[in-house]
Amino acid sequence: MHLLNILLAITATPALSLSIPSLRNINPRQVQDFTGRARILVVNSTGYIYDVPDAYNKVIGCINNVGKVAPVSSKNCAIFEKKGDYPTKIVSPEGNNCTHFNVAQPVNQDSYYGKDSYAWYCGVTGEKESKGPGWFDSETYYTINGFDHPYICSGNIGCSRDMPAPPAGPDGRPAKDFSPLPLWMYYWGGEEYHVVKGHVEVLLLWDLLKN
């Protein structure tokens, strides 16, 4: 995605919007390696505008095989694969396409603008569960060159996600063990500029396997 496209998208953004990136620290020479197979790490980006300092120290979980946020461990963190150029799919270990359009998944009831969005899901999405072939078939994922890490985006520069805050451990950091949590696209607008109380804004980092 070129800088001009980002600028055009920002000027055209309506009141109901996906979270958009800051332009201040974009380095167009920083090319993202969104290829192959990877873990997907969940980075707490609350309070930051996309350039999250020391991102790996702000990891609060990873994506499990059905698309939920789980504590980081070799058992919990599924290995996903990027497939296709356009549309680009993220595929689970079981061979399922991850999607925001499985209508059997819970909606973000706490959010004013996100109450009609479905939790990300990487299990089986059949015809009855899909919002429709036009949504599911055309759904594509990408990264934006210029950021420090390959953060997974979709839609109209939709890189931020919204999730319930994981329980905290004694040190104030996320507990080492918690039940898997749902993850939604982050929507905002004039009635709600930030994630609601009890939620955190996060980015999904494509943590590429080197072997």
TrEMBL record:
Signal peptide coordinates: 1-17
Origin: domain of life: Eukaryota
Keywords: Signal
Entry annotated with the keyword Signal: yes
Name this protein carries in UniProt: Uncharacterized protein
Organism: Rhypophila decipiens
